[in-house]
Design a protein that fits this description.
The protein is about 10% helix and about 10% strand. A two-stranded parallel ribbon has the order 1-2. It has a two-stranded antiparallel sheet with strand order 3-4. Belongs to the MoeA family. Pfam families: MoeA_N.
């Protein structure tokens, strides 16, 4: 495990063969990573971890542009900022409005 990436954070590490990072939901995957294995599908020991099932390339990864495209309206002017709106703002990298 070469890094730990919190939600909203970006890693500067390059993930190589047989390497992994711990990544929180919503964080940007680092260069070199090609899949995300859910924590529940791993067995973690002090220095190592085991993956319980096979996984495929791009598994559990949302690719850029997959959810919206340029010009899509995700929040309307005057909309109340509730928890759902905050989640949308965070998805697009806004910490302040």
């Amino acid at each position: 495990m070469i890094d730990h990436i919190g939600a909203g954070s970006v890693s500067d590490k390059l993930v190589g063969d047989h390497e992994a990072v711990r990544i929180m939901t919503g964080a940007q995957i680092p260069n070199g990573a090609d899949a995300v294995v859910m924590f529940e599908q791993t067995i973690e020991l002090e220095d190592t971890f085991t993956i319980r099932k096979p996984f495929s390339k791009n598994e559990n990864i949302s690719l850029k542009g997959e959810e919206t495209t340029t010009g899509d309206v995700v929040l309307k002017k005057g909309q109340v900022i509730n928890p759902g709106a905050i989640a949308v703002l965070a998805t697009y990298g806004y910490a302040e409005v």
